[in-house]
Design a protein that fits this description.
The protein is of the alpha/beta class. Helices cover 42% and strands 11% of the residues.
Length: 578
């Protein structure tokens, strides 16, 4: 286990001390500078003869690396190239991404990460993070001790059961924590040495994975029920013991488990679920921004959500909570939402409604006489009866927003707000081009995956990506910088409001700000989250100026530090991270 500590010298240069030298240093990506090691460093660190003699700088490396990257013919090969670069030289990896942010973010996360998860066992190169399988349930504390770096600020963990819209990918789900933590470092400056991706391998029910002779996970059907819950509990207890101050982010758990685990552990440690809270926060921000365009207030909206999982209900909960805080009754707030599961509209006359869905179940009497198919009220009937102003898709099923449905919605709404949020791109409920065609260019559209702008009747319609990376890195930065004890719903609502304000300040970005501003966005969201932590008494930060200083100290910029041997200079304290 390595102790990676940066010190900011009086000269302004960052320094890190290490016991590693020679080829061992070059094989450790957080220390490796490749040809950018100076002549003095090569002598001190035992690198002479191990590198070509000409010492470059990071700018020359960026030029060479981007040139090589550009020769890769497909997005998949570009993804593999970037991950290989991360496994070789992390500073150069993040500097390259930061220099080409909008081009490369889709390659390291959505939509290409979905392909990477499906093919994880076939493109696996080097270990990253921790794999904890169910047969190792008695060894979790020991496995946590095997992490690469001693100090960890944030863990992202998945069990791989609901990866994007692709379903159960087993151990291949590791691509999600790796990708999410890359965005923590890229978007919010959390140092990569202080992040830890973890996959909890409880088996898989994906027959294709189990039949694959190259599959690297535990070859067993998924563990469920009490045995699964006991395994998760052992994991949480081990984290609380070994890393008591860490921020733990749950990612891509099944619909039922996501809400259950968040509810169980949210008051035991500093934790949140990005699928529930991050998705809700960024969607709320997009809606607040869209309402600025339509000049309609939240209380005037009628919202239909296709999908009744943790993400959909999380969106509805955050919007409804904001209405309650504005003075609306709980009943009236919930009545603004119509939620459909895979069969149809949820109402209290149906069996099998889950506890976290009951808040938004319509009254059976209200829908008497509505047309039903095989006993269920489908989306087309709901849109016809409700005349919604907002239509949100989190179903994970492509093409569900059909032409007739979108046109019906547009009949009763001057500027329909339509958000097909399912990932990856292939699972989107509709494409922005079709939506603009069917609404005669009137719709306000944001999507879960990146789409190109749409040209319609001489008007260029920008398509904002309603990407969680707008929110969770900034929330994490605020929590880490303030050392907040818990993550609260009020923090995510503060993040939504701040993101909507930023969008309002960005001309040409109708719903969300340009992704190229993501570091500015993350810093401002971190500030809003930190202020909320102060207001709620969850941090010892005493002033706004102290909060700003802590955020600045936490944000890391990918630049090479000077590397020295421990016997030359011991690092002092945590130091200042740029």
């Amino acid at each position: 286990m390595l102790d990676f500590t940066l010190r900011k010298e009086d000269s302004g240069e960052s320094t890190v001390a290490t016991d590693l030298a020679g080829s061992f240093l070059l094989d450790t990506p957080i220390f490796n500078k490749g040809t950018a090691f100076t002549t003095a460093e090569r002598t001190e660190l035992g690198l002479n003869g191990l590198l070509p003699p000409y010492a470059t700088d990071i700018h020359e490396q960026l030029e060479r690396t981007y040139h090589e990257f550009s020769f890769k013919p497909t997005d998949m090969e570009k993804h593999i190239y970037l991950r290989a670069l991360q496994d070789r030289n992390e500073v150069l990896f993040y500097r390259l991404l930061l220099s080409h942010l909008e081009e490369m973010m889709p390659l390291v996360y959505t939509p290409v990460v979905g392909w990477a998860c499906r093919h994880f066992s076939h493109i696996y190169r080097r270990p990253r993070g921790l794999f904890i399988s169910y047969p190792q349930k008695d060894e979790i504390e020991l496995i946590l001790e095997n992490r690469a770096f001693k100090h960890v600020d944030v863990i992202v963990v998945t069990d791989g059961e609901r990866i994007l819209g692709l379903g159960d990918q087993g151990v291949g789900g590791m691509g999600i924590p790796v990708g999410k933590l890359s965005l923590y470092s890229l978007c919010a400056g959390i140092h990569p040495a202080r992040t830890l991706p973890i996959v909890l391998d409880t088996g898989t029910d994906n027959e294709e994975r189990l039949a694959d002779p190259h599959y690297l996970g535990w070859r067993h059907g998924r563990v469920r029920g009490q045995a699964y819950l006991d395994f998760i509990d052992r994991f949480v207890e081990a984290v609380k013991k070994k890393l008591p101050d860490v921020l733990l982010q749950w990612e891509d758990f099944s619909r039922d488990n996501a809400s259950l685990l968040l509810g169980k552990y949210r008051d035991e440690l500093c934790t949140f679920n990005d699928d529930i809270q991050g998705t809700a926060s960024v969607t709320t921000a997009a809606l607040l921004s869209a309402m600025r365009i339509t000049r309609k207030r939240t209380e005037e909206q009628k919202v239909v959500l296709l999908g009744a999982g943790s993400a959909a209900v999380g969106i509805a909960n955050q919007l409804a909570d904001s209405l309650v805080d504005q003075g609306m009754s709980e009943e009236d707030a919930a009545a603004k939402f119509w939620i459909l599961n895979s069969k149809g509209l949820i109402h209290d006359g149906l069996s099998g409604i889950l506890p976290f869905q009951t808040r938004f179940a319509r009254k059976k009497a209200e829908v008497e006489g509505w047309a039903a198919q095989e006993g269920y009220i489908k989306l087309d009937e709901v849109v016809k009866r409700v005349h919604p102003s907002v239509l949100i898709g989190v179903s994970g099923k492509a093409g569900m927003f059909r032409e007739a449905i979108v046109k019906e919605m547009a009949k009763g709404c001057d500027r329909p707000i339509i958000l097909p949020l399912s990932n990856p791109t292939s699972q989107a409920e509709a494409t922005p081009a079709d939506i603009q065609l069917w609404t005669d260019g009137k719709a306000i559209v944001a999507t879960g995956s990146p789409f190109a702008p749409v040209e319609y009747k001489g008007v260029r319609h920008m398509v904002s990506q309603c990407n969680n990376s707008y929110v969770f890195p900034g929330v994490g930065l605020g929590v880490i910088a303030t050392k907040a004890k818990r993550v609260t719903r009020q923090m995510f609502r503060a993040a939504s409001k701040e993101l909507a304000h930023i969008a309002e300040e960005a001309p040409g970005a109708p719903v969300l700000p340009p992704m190229g501003q993501i570091r500015k966005v993350s810093r401002r969201i971190a500030h809003a989250v930190g202020e909320m932590a102060m207001e709620q008494g969850l941090t010892k930060v005493a002033s706004i100026s102290e909060l700003s200083e802590r955020i600045d100290d936490t944000m890391w910029l990918p630049d090479y530090p000077q590397i020295v041997r421990h016997d030359v200079r011991e690092p002092v304290g945590a130091g200042r991270r740029r």
